[in-house]
Amino acid sequence: MPSVYIKTYGCQMNERDSEAVAAQLVAKGYSLAPSEETADVVLLNTCSVRDMAERKAIGKMTTLVGQAKKKRPDQILGFMGCMAQSRGQELIDRLPDVDLVIGTQKFHRTADYLDDIFAGRREKIVDVAEEAKSEAKIREHILGSGSEQGVTAFVSIMQGCNQYCTFCIVPYTRGEERSRSIDDIVSECRELVARGVREITLLGQIVTSFGKRDVPARDGVSAFVQLIEAVHEIEGLERIRFTSPHPKGYGDDLVEAYARLPKLVESAHIPVQSGSDRLLKAMHRGYTRERFMGIIGKLRRVKPEMGITTDVIVGFPGETEEDFEQTLSLAREADFDNAYIFKYSPRKDTPAATMPDQLPTEVKEERNERLLTQLNNQAARRYEALVGQTTQILVEGPSKRNAARMMGRTRCGKIVVFDGSSRHRGQLMDVKITRAGSFTLYGDPAILNLD
């Protein structure tokens, strides 16, 4: 059977989709190639959130087409994901040597479409149509085996987004919100735990919107918190995370869940986007600066050690220096552990793309650098404060930068590197933090964990 190489751009949802497609292909007899050069099929799972991600994917495919013409004329090339959904046939019109374009609701059809192409039944395939119940069609995972057994896993609980932020293309590429059933999600999680997974991250475009249409609140507990409670009951599961939420989804029931559900770790990624109420309104975010800071305060009162990260957009249309200063001051007040900063880029058919007062690139870059410097300094101080403390980590495997050492994450989501061996994989281990690097901690195993 042919071999396949999948390259992924963008978010954790895309990573999860790529993993599921790979698992389905392996189940059909395909093998996974170690590189694009040796693969019979190369698939790019694409992102449309920023212009740079689209340009990278198109540039990569252009290079692949050139290489295939010279070395692998029979190599099958395809786009998947958000850019595929957004552009569809346009991608093949632009790059005629591309064979396959698969939208976000058609991932589960990838193997069948490749079979058709190899059998000569179809030459070019573009499928970006909507498909009912597609959110529950892919639940396969590739977790490795033996000493390489996966310890953590992503579980997609819903697809789509109904928020329609003015800067965001996701509602157009992923469709409206569609949630899986709690029973189906719990069943998938149980299977993963049976295969050695100890930590599960629940995924959704706006994960806190889970089940709003389908699952009524129970005694003031939202559908999303009901799901966390159900997953929490799985024996053998040690930790639960989720991403990405919306600030509007942080009701008191979710805040209180951190106090009463020990497997729900003290880690929250809450995208703020801006510290200016004027811009938050223009972005259609649905909350104010005061409301956002109120959530941060509640979380830290429940769990003072809570690790909080965020997303910020700089250079949104019309952003003044005063607006930006408000973002800087919010970042100081919230004292984030980390933040992902994005320079605004216009996305096709979104309201913000046609707003007046689009900012020049040099202004975006200057503000990006100022905010990045401030956030890095804040994070360095927070990481340095952990030196000398003993903290629990879940050991995931070898460090990506140094395979001779092991790494794990604290409950707050911070990476810790330490001297250990593969026998520690999957263990909950206490380590003493000896020093702090750039968004990485280094530690020694506590003496009780050495045996």
* Global mean pLDDT: 94
| Count, helices | 13
Distance between the termini: 45 Å
Query: DSSP strand (E) fraction?
Result: 15-25%
Q: How many distinct beta strands?
A: 19
Structural class of the helix and strand makeup? alpha/beta
Widest sheet: strand ordering = 2-1-3-4-5-6
Helix content: 25-40%
Unreliable stretches: none
Largest sheet: 6 strands, parallel
Q: Would you give an account of this structure?
A:
This protein has 451 residues and is of the alpha/beta class. It has helices at 12-27, 51-71, 81-87, 89-94, 110-119, 170-174, 182-194, 223-232, 252-260, 277-283, 289-302, 321-334, 361-384, and strands at residues 3-8, 31-32, 41-46, 76-80, 100-102, 125-127, 152-156, 158-159, 178-179, 199-203, 239-243, 267-269, 307-314, 338-343, 390-398, 406-410, 415-418, 428-436, 441-445. A six-stranded parallel sheet has the order 2-1-3-4-5-6, sandwiched between helices.
Layout of SSEs?
Layout: E1 3-8, H1 12-27, E2 31-32, E3 41-46, H2 51-71, E4 76-80, H3 81-87, H4 89-94, E5 100-102, H5 110-119, E6 125-127, E7 152-156, E8 158-159, H6 170-174, E9 178-179, H7 182-194, E10 199-203, H8 223-232, E11 239-243, H9 252-260, E12 267-269, H10 277-283, H11 289-302, E13 307-314, H12 321-334, E14 338-343, H13 361-384, E15 390-398, E16 406-410, E17 415-418, E18 428-436, E19 441-445
Parallel strand pairs: 1-2, 1-3, 3-4, 4-5, 5-6, 7-10, 10-11, 12-13, 13-14, 17-19
Antiparallel strand pairs: 8-9, 15-16, 15-18, 16-17, 18-19
Helix pairs in contact: 7-8, 9-11, 12-13
